[in-house]
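Hey, quick one: can you model this chain's 3D structure?
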Amino acid sequence: MVIEIKLAYCGDDCSKCPRYVATLSGDVEKLKESAILMEKAGWAREINDLDGLKCLGCQDIESCEYGVKECCIERKIDNCGQCLNYPCALINEAFEITKGYAKNFVNMLLKEEYDIFHEAFFLKKENLDNEYQNHKK
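Sure thing. Here's the predicted structure for all 137 residues.
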């Protein structure tokens, strides 16, 4: 199954997120594995609640940890990289929080586990910078 690139409002790469990929493919075992990984990282999920584990991206969540979902919806854009005010204080704060996660996870996870988080969640600034450059054209 080929999953096309999908950026979250904050620049996370959903197409690299194990929960998102497992949800789209319907792979229950991969969904459980991703829940175990998220739990190990401190991003706990109820492993026995398969419906609660599924993720179809930001549109699925009620509110955003960084507050950018609401801003993007208000501005009618798909992600912060499409905003005329990019980068703003709100997304810069998200980048700082993400740097903290990355710093903590490097010592908490195995290299291959860290790499999953790095690809899916820790490149949000680079992803949005690219989106901003492409959107300006």
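One thing worth noting: The CA atoms of residues 18 and 34 lie 6 Å apart.
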